Amino acid sequence: AQRVTQPEKLLSVFKGAPVELKCNYSYSGSPELFWYVQYSRQRLQLLLRHISRESIKGFTADLNKGETSFHLKKPFAQEEDSAMYYCALSRGYNQGGKLIFGQGTELSVKP
Amino acid sequence: DSGVTQTPKHLITATGQRVTLRCSPRSGDLSVYWYQQSLDQGLQFLIQYYNGEERAKGNILERFSAQQFPDLHSELNLSSLELGDSALYFCASSVELGSRSTGELFFGEGSRLTVL
Question: Cα B33–B38–B41 angle (5° rounding)?
Fold first, then answer.
């Protein structure tokens, strides 16, 4: 069965500190992985996807198939990064858009 | 607003009742997804429609049903409501070309259902 696990419910860091939000998945095929973010009083929105290999708002994430992980990292956290972050998995580009989400991690960046 | 719109935003009802949640996708998006978010279960995929037809089904109860109309709006019907159905119900839409999807979903603000 496909599953996404985000082990931390809450991650609290100080401004300027590095941040890593963990995501592990279980899927026997070749998944597509995504990070979605929900800022306070805003809609859930796509932050980045592994296939794009891009950095968005200073965040990066690398798909590690050996460890079945897709951790989200940022070297220097900013207060505006405070939000709810969800890791999500899709069975693949040709398999439809259904996403399986993790439970989410709340990131709190303190001044 | 050309984004995903959901109505109503809040709904309070009693056990045993039936409610209908409505969703209008982004202009041009043919796919609509319904998700349920509860405190203990997180975001759970319920069902997906593509251009009026059911595409994928998740953990949707038999008491729940959905449909997508010719104008592409969708409705999620919840019947014989139980206390445990209290949750935030999200609708999302996406651009898809046939079976291909980018995986980017555009979410609505959600409909908060409280069953008393």
Answer: 90
CA-nearest of B59, B88, B78, B68 to B25 is B68
Judge whether A9 is closer than 8 Å to chain B, CB to CB.
no
User: In the structure encoding, which two tokens stand for residue A16, read together?
Assistant: 């300027």
Contact call for B102 and A99, based on CB within 8 A = no
Cα distance between residue B37 and residue B7, in whole Å: 16
pLDDT level of residue A44 (50, 70, 90 thresholds): very high
Backbone region of residue B75 per phi and psi (left: phi > 0; alpha: psi in -120 to 50; beta: other values):
beta
- Tokens standing for residue A89: 């998995």
Q: Give, in order, the Cα–Cα distances in Å from A46 to each of B60, B68, B102.
A: 24, 24, 11
Q: Is residue B76 a contact partner of residue B46, using CB atoms and an 8 Å limit?
A: yes
Distance CA B26, CA B72 (A): 10
Q: What DSSP line would sit under B48-87, residue for residue?
A: EEETTEEEEE-S--TTEEEEE-TTS-EEEEE-S--GGG-E
pLDDT on residue B26: 94
A34 touches chain B (CB under 8 A): yes
Top mean-pLDDT range of A26-35, A82-91, B88-97: A82-91
